[in-house]
Automatic annotation (TrEMBL):
PROSITE patterns (UniProt xref): ACONITASE_2
Reactions mediated catalytically: (2R,3S)-3-isopropylmalate = (2S)-2-isopropylmalate
Cofactor: [4Fe-4S] cluster
A biological process term (GO) from this entry: L-leucine biosynthetic process
Pfam family, one: Aconitase
MF annotations from Gene Ontology: 3-isopropylmalate dehydratase activity; 4 iron, 4 sulfur cluster binding; metal ion binding
Record protein name field: 3-isopropylmalate dehydratase
EC number(s) stated in the UniProt entry for this protein: 4.2.1.33
Matching InterPro entries: 3-IsopropMal_deHydase_lsu, Acnase/IPM_dHydase_lsu_aba_1/3, Acoase/IPM_deHydtase_lsu_aba, Aconitase_4Fe-4S_BS, Aconitase_4Fe-4S_dom, IPM_dehydratase_rel_enz, IPMI_cat
Native organism: Mucilaginibacter gotjawali
């Protein structure tokens, strides 16, 4: 065994290199492969054309999420393109013997929600999916990243991909988070500090007290947003919180296999004195509830602050002005008090049970504002069941909200959940690009607390006044 101090990332990476290529990418072994309806059909077509089988069908897991409606899921899907994609996923999975959680399957939900909650995602694994937010699974101490459709085909046929090793960055945050400050705020804060391309070329390890104290749901939220700072992925060393979350999950190891796995998982941490290519250090006390005001996730601020000027930001002036013009905002304006039309609680960033608990803790005993259309979309059927079991649905109903059925929904508006042109949405998702939530839609990214505060007041509101 090597005595050189090693990072968590190197430990997991090096254990998966099948072959090193001189001056080229590594041939990299993949433990778990997730697929959804958008990026898999062309990969399966490639297999068919080459007459190649799926090498290890039991290592690939399919779920339908992007194109699925969030009401009346028992009825046939109306949109022909969506219906075709969903059918292709089902047929391809059946043809190659791949596990498939389609609409109405009790395990169905957003790929990055269902993988972890069923114990498929485990520490020390390499995990890929034809989807950028695959970084979510890094919360378990896995190396997880998004791949393109041609690589999906490669993984299906060989369980390997060609992958250059990224550089390593560690982001350390010490101290304790203040009232109303959530993992989403931590991630939006980091992105606002380093910009949406600040971690390009790196794989990030999040470390320090803030992440050690965080729940698995919170860690998933943070790792999910790694991609929005440009990183290849993000990870957090597994610990007792991770093991407790996984223990008893359907696909987690059981009995003696659990003990063996646990012994290995406990070795998965960065050694003291291991070095990174870049290190950033922040303090929890400096992080307030955040909100974005522009058209990339880096254009965010503490909710109590005013929208910065181009000079404050060091941003290219014309692109910044264009971004604010799209949003209908002006430099130097206060963000609190801005009118909101839509509230979206959901997505692979904030569609987990903890997010619904946070949202309901604010709307409890209050009423939805009349000007707000709210879409509350659980990340999976398991989350939906928990919402019902914990009495959260009753709180939401009492406050004038409806619960929808699981899927990506308004996060990218590939189904009917589209925010109309010019309207403002406070959204717990991860992208605020032009038109992301529907043509002409305007997105303000924020935490479930901020979303709830907007949902009951109708305007951007500091959630701390309700906590
Ligand atoms: C459709 C899919 C390829 C896409 C992604 O890769 O991220 C989507 O999930 C998104 O969030 O924009
Ligand atoms: S919820 Fe949004 S970010 Fe996540 S996979 Fe679906 S579309 Fe992509």
């Amino acid at each position: 065994m090597s005595t050189t101090p090693t990072t968590l990332f190197d430990k997991v990476w090096d254990a998966h290199v099948v072959k090193k290529i001189e001056d080229g990418p590594d041939v990299f072994y993949i433990d778990r492969h997730f697929i959804h309806e958008v990026t898999s059909p062309v990969a399966f077509l490639g297999l068919k054309n080459r007459g190649v089988p799926v090498l290890f069908p039991e290592k690939t897991f399919a779920t339908a999420d992007h194109n699925t409606p969030t009401i009346n899921q028992h009825l046939p899907v109306q949109d022909p393109l969506s219906a075709n994609q969903l059918k292709a996923l089902e047929d391809n999975s059946a043809k190659y013997g791949i596990s498939h959680w389609g609409l109405n399957n009790p395990k169905n939900g957003i790929v990055h929600v269902v993988g972890p909650e069923n114990g498929i995602t485990q520490p020390g694994m390499t995990i890929v999916c034809g989807d950028s937010h695959t970084s979510t699974h890094g919360a378990f101490g896995a190396i997880a990243f998004g791949i393109g459709t041609s690589e999906v085909e490669m993984v299906l046929s060989s369980q390997c991909i060609m992958q250059p090793k990224p550089k390593k960055m560690r982001i350390l945050i010490d101290g304790k988070l203040g009232k109303g400050v959530t993992p989403k705020d931590v991630a939006l804060f980091i992105i606002s500090q380093i910009t949406a391309s600040g971690a390009t070329g790196y794989f990030v390890e999040y470390a320090g007290e803030v992440f050690e104290q965080m729940s698995m749901e919170g860690r998933m939220t943070v790792c999910n947003l790694s991609i929005e700072m440009g990183a290849r992925g993000g990870m957090i060393a597994p610990d007792e919180t991770t093991f407790a979350y996984l223990n008893g999950k359907e696909k987690a190891p059981k009995g003696a296999a659990w003990e063996t796995a646990l012994a290995y998982w406990k070795t998965l941490k960065t050694d003291a004195d291991a070095t990174f290519d870049k290190e950033l250090h922040y303090h929890a006390a400096d992080i307030e509830p955040q909100i974005t005001y522009g058209t990339n996730p880096g254009l965010g601020t503490a909710i109590t602050k005013n929208i910065p000027t181009a000079a404050d930001l060091n941003e290219g002036e014309s692109s910044y002005k264009k971004s604010l013009a799209y949003m209908g905002f002006a430099e130097g304006e206060q963000i609190i008090g801005k009118k909101v039309d839509y509230v979206f609680l959901g997505s692979c960033t904030n569609g987990r049970i903890e997010d619904f608990r946070a949202f309901s803790s604010i709307v409890k005993g209050r009423k939805k504002a009349d000007n707000i259309t709210a879409w509350l979309v659980p990340g999976s059927h398991i989350v939906e069941s928990q919402i019902k079991e914990e009495g959260i649905l009753d709180i939401l109903t009492e406050a004038g909200f409806q619960l929808r059925q699981p899927g990506c929904s308004a996060c990218l508006a590939m189904n009917d959940d589209k925010v109309p042109a010019g309207k403002y949405a406070v959204s717990t998702s991860n992208r605020n690009f032009e038109g992301r939530q529907g043509p002409g839609s305007r997105t303000l990214l924020a935490s479930p607390y901020v979303a709830a505060a907007a949902a009951v007041t109708g305007v951007v509101t500091d959630p701390r006044e309700f906590l």
